[in-house]
């Protein structure tokens, strides 16, 4: 009797639980991403409204620990269905074969998005480019005017940068001409390489099978970068950004996050954004670093089709623009995004989209992060005067070559 | 009956035993196994035996030797200061005086704050335009970029560690001091012994077990220094603050080479065990010699 009663109670419990589920048919899609919920949730809400059968569980990761968490989830065989990955994470995940092949599901989007290099092996596509980021030259118009420089435009060549920095540096009173990045892992590379790329320098051959880092162009670029120390200051990215916001730094290469921070933290600052200067008016390119965020699914993800559906929704021009407008630190990967009204009203943001046309993605080589680290360590040696520019470039070249050989 | 009570004992212990098995024994055994394979978390079940290759690679890894050197400097450069400061503080706040509790709590406070929080605060303090330099500049002293100069970055982190850790060990010394019978001091006073004589002949010898504990535990903890480095310098500049555990972390979660990282972890474990054994031998032998 009591056993039968127990079974009845269990049935009742099950019935109640099903009842609570309401439309119990909704499929849950787990989405891990790095944006604050107030930025992403409105967009996800619209997706759920359009797809009543799908419920999205959004979880926010941090850039400090996100990669560890994703790695652990993949290792445990319980990865999220859809995940946002930074472009720098991609080589390792691609190499490990952990990502789901989306080639067929995204083929029709090829012409409408930029940044496929982040998620491609050969012709196979393992993700959708979502938003992009690059670096450009930020300059302080007030300091330019004080130093008797033309503050209506930024410097366009290396010589103009050096001259402007020298004149601003002479203003004294804690004001510096140019901000040179120091030992910032994964940041120094992005501050130095724009000049190297602009000078015709490269890291790897197009086939990713040999190092091209030891070129005279790269040595020249490093010598230029080192020379900026004399007409400026050195520091970590955070410190340089702080000095810039306080109106004490003439120029530096930085990213879109400043566009977001300045109106809030330094509303009075008069500043401009310009393309990264090139070696000379008749030579080189306004090159920069290109990075971005990619939407991926894992081989072990449970709901790959729904994940792709959500990803395709997120990269739609209106939704990517909504994210970019709300976050203000990235630009949509959609071709023609800069024609939106928002970018006509925000010239700094629009300049970053223009800069993106000259920007380089880092190669999807499985050992890329080690190569980038080797390059940063050698440039650091030069910045601390332990090596000459030529020696540092030669040593980095040798280390990159060794990594290719492994 | 006996089996029954044994079963009951195991039953009562089971929450701890299960937790220890799942979160203690299993990961430890797994990492030992992984150190002999090319295990990578992203590949999951595909792994191959590599034998002692990771251990051989570790011995030839110049970055690891550099990390070991930095860790050695950290251990040797902090433990004497932390121990002396902790003992000094303990002696200062042991006698009864007004506000004693306030001081005890104050000195202990850093120990209850997360290392990450402390590190963030000190990162701001040490910044080239931070408060420390503002204070130094105000009195006309040089203002180096503490965490960007390879010569000062590690000492700066060490100074913070001494400050943050000495309160905790003060508490342990206090417990040790409380256990020394007051009569010994009274007897010595009657014999005309001064404060210094009583300290060297009564306090220090009787405090030896506490001292041993403090030194051994602090050595093990210092060999594993990580969070400060992770937050404040990420191992830079020029690798001057890369410690063994930070290097290990980079191998494991930067490059996904969990096998190699596990091998480093086991080498560090062997080193910690060796050092602890040595310290116990040295301090215990002295104890015998003293008798």
Please describe what this structure looks like.
- The complex is a heterodimer of chains A (406) and B (291).
- Chain A has helices spanning 2-20, 37-50, 66-75, 90-95, 103-106, 141-146, 158-169, 188-198, 216-227, 237-245, 257-265, 304-314, 317-327, 341-345, 347-356, 368-383, 389-405, and strands at residues 27-33, 54-60, 82-86, 120-121, 124-125, 128-140, 176-181, 232-235, 249-255, 271-274, 288-296, 331-332, 359-361.
- Chain A is an alpha/beta fold.
- In chain A, strand 1, helix 2 and strand 2 (54-60) form a beta-alpha-beta unit.
- The radius of gyration of chain A is 24 Å and the shape is globular.
- The termini of chain A are far apart.
- Mean pLDDT of chain A is 90; it is low at 10-23.
- Chain B has 13 helices and no strands.
- The model of chain B has no long low-confidence stretch (mean pLDDT 90).
- The chains are: A alpha/beta (406), B mainly alpha (291).
- The interface between A and B is medium-sized, with 29 and 22 residues.
Distance between the termini of chain B: 48 Å
The count of DSSP E runs of length 2 or more, i.e. the number of strands of chain B, is 0
Shape assignment of chain A: globular
Order of helices and strands of chain A: HEHEHEHHEEEHHEHHEHEHEEHHEHHEHH
Topology at a glance:
The complex is a heterodimer of chains A (406) and B (291).
Chain A: H1 2-20, E1 27-33, H2 37-50, E2 54-60, H3 66-75, E3 82-86, H4 90-95, H5 103-106, E4 120-121, E5 124-125, E6 128-140, H6 141-146, H7 158-169, E7 176-181, H8 188-198, H9 216-227, E8 232-235, H10 237-245, E9 249-255, H11 257-265, E10 271-274, E11 288-296, H12 304-314, H13 317-327, E12 331-332, H14 341-345, H15 347-356, E13 359-361, H16 368-383, H17 389-405
Parallel strand pairs in A: 1-2, 1-3, 7-8, 7-9, 11-13
Antiparallel strand pairs in A: 3-11, 4-5, 6-9, 6-10, 6-11, 6-12
Helix pairs in contact in A: 8-9, 9-17, 16-17
Chain B: H1 2-34, H2 53-60, H3 62-93, H4 100-108, H5 115-126, H6 131-138, H7 153-178, H8 182-190, H9 195-206, H10 208-223, H11 227-232, H12 244-254, H13 258-290
Helix pairs in contact in B: 1-13, 2-13, 3-7, 3-10, 3-12, 4-7, 7-10, 10-13, 12-13
